[in-house]
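Support request, priority: normal
Reporter: lab tech (M.K.)
Component: structure prediction queue

Hi team, I submitted a job for YciI family protein from Actinomadura rugatobispora yesterday, and the status page still shows it as pending. I've pasted the exact input below so you can check whether something in the sequence is tripping the parser. The sequence length should be 120 residues. Please let me know if I need to resubmit or if it's stuck on your end.
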Amino acid sequence: MKYLLMIHMNDEAWERLSEAERNEIMNAHEGFQKMLRESGEMVVTHALANPSTSAIVRVKDGVPAVTDGPFAEAKEYLAGYYVVDCESRERALEIAAHMPESRFLGVEVRPIMYSAGMEM
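Reply from support: The job had stalled in the queue. We restarted it manually and it finished. Here are the results:
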């Protein structure tokens, strides 16, 4: 079963960390990714650009309208993610506990439905 492990960011909380703490979190991803590759559970991972670089497209009456910026004003935003393929929800939660962000803001774990089918 595939799971999306979402990394949320809060710029204010990030800035309160020391430079050493920020570097520790960023550098820990190398070992985390190595663990997932070796276990065969890594599918993909990506970091996302800051929400200020995003655009929202809405179509009304067949006409697209594009606005800049994030969809919602929030202190926390999606900063990156991992997709893992593992045996169970419990294993996905175990993997998430190894992520550096689990000690910082938490990691959201959600099943990917289309890989599992529409029934959960």
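The longest strand covers residues 76-85. Helices lie at 11-16, 19-39, 89-98, 113-116. Let us know if anything else looks off. Ticket resolved.
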